[in-house]
Specification:
It is a single chain. This protein has 366 residues and is an alpha+beta fold. It folds into 2 domains: 70 residues; 229 residues, Up-down Bundle (Multidrug efflux transporter AcrB transmembrane fold). It is 66% helix and 13% strand. It is built from 11 helices and 5 strands. Strands 3-2-1-4-5 form a 5-stranded antiparallel sheet. The longest helix has 35 residues.
């Protein structure tokens, strides 16, 4: 019970801090009440000769027994357009007697999958699953209520990402692994790995002369909307965040394995380091694929396009967004490999000195 009281207090503190930052920021994601509706009629004025739907659509939606009409502009942009069909279930935001906006059922599907994700973790992991879900609550609260609003207010994205990811790492390791030497070792190891990812990304940017604003179309949209962010720092912050999950995974694997070894065998720090490196060598093969496959998956459509055009490899790699994705993936993967000796070294020093009779820094945790 003492542990959950601690988490309740910690969660309250984070929500309070996040609430202050979010409420005082001019930048928000609006949360409004949505009503379930159904499309009962559509009238299209569309250029059907175009490769994508371009034109205008009148849509009638039935919400709470009342029918509303709204206009839907189709720009021929698959990223932004939404085409509605008769009989389709939608979500509607109302302002008085007017429709403010309509979104499709994919919003419901995403929400359903988020709930299914949480329930699956709890069902598979049991009590530990509740800890994982709690750690995710910490993560989303810090990112959306603190990190993003502060970046938009002009804080340095790279430094802010580094600080917030260190906090997320500490909270995640403490919640899942326990507030003890194991959690501390995993936190320090992951922080060193995350820091190395950021430094590698910065060095790569300088060596390549890459325009850091070219890694996503949204960076250009942000810039021209009047938010003059430091694109280099934003690129590094993106790298830090995207690689931190896999880095934390490796760190806790090493820290947890060595924790159990030292509890039972009481081996020296030097032997612990060697054991950690042996454990790391066994997991590095699959973990090295983790970030590469994530980025390769994101770039599938782009790579297929260039292959269909028989483009030379050098030309493909010279495109800003391709080079940026490659730099993100490789910097993160190098940092992932470096996390193994980092964590093994931290464990060899921390366990060897402080783990006597399994004393812990806080009296609860695994």
């Amino acid at each position: 019970m003492k542990e959950w009281k601690f988490h309740a207090l910690l969660l309250f503190t984070i929500f309070l801090l996040g609430g202050v930052v979010y409420s005082t920021s001019p930048y928000h994601i609006r949360l409004e009440r949505l009503h379930l509706g159904k499309v009962v009629r559509t009238s299209d004025n569309i250029d059907y000769d175009a490769p994508t739907k371009v034109g205008f659509q009148d849509v009638w939606v039935k919400v709470n027994g009342k029918i509303y009409r709204f206009g839907n502009l189709l720009r021929g942009n698959w990223l932004l357009d939404e085409y509605f069909s008769k009989g389709e279930t939608v979500l509607v935001a109302l302002r008085g007697n007017e429709i403010e906006y309509v979104v499709s059922k994919k919003v419901l599907v995403v929400g359903l999958y988020a709930l299914l994700f949480a329930l699956t973790i709890i069902a598979v992991a049991g009590k530990k699953g509740f800890r994982v879900v709690l750690a995710l609550v910490y993560t989303f609260t810090i990112i959306f209520l603190i990190l993003y609003p502060l970046i938009l207010r002009g804080w340095n994205p790279a430094l802010l990402s580094l600080v917030t990811l260190f906090a997320i790492s500490a909270l995640t390791m403490g919640t899942v692994a326990g507030f003890n030497e194991k959690g501390l070792a995993a936190t320090l190891g992951s922080f060193l790995g995350i820091l190395s990812a950021g430094l590698l990304g910065l060095i790569g940017l300088e060596l390549s002369g890459l325009n850091p604003g070219g890694f996503t179309e949204f960076s250009e949209m942000l810039f021209f909307s009047g938010h003059f962010l430091d694109m280099k720092a934003l690129f590094i912050g993106t790298l830090i965040m995207s690689s931190s999950g896999a880095i934390m995974d490796v760190s806790i694997d090493i820290a947890s394995g060595l924790y159990e070894v030292h509890k039972k065998a009481k081996i020296t720090g030097e032997e612990l380091f060697k054991s950690g490196m042996n454990i790391g060598r066994d997991i590095i093969g699959t973990m090295a694929n983790t970030l590469i496959l994530v980025y390769a998956g994101e770039m599938t459509a782009g790579i297929l396009f260039f292959m269909a055009k028989n483009a030379p490899l050098a030309v493909i790699l010279d495109y800003n967004f391709i080079a940026a994705e490659a730099l993100l993936a490789l910097s993160g993967s190098i940092a992932l490999a470096l996390t193994i000796p980092f964590t093994a070294f931290v464990c060899s020093k921390l366990y060897g000195v402080s783990l006597k009779g399994d004393k812990t820094l806080i009296t609860f945790g695994n």
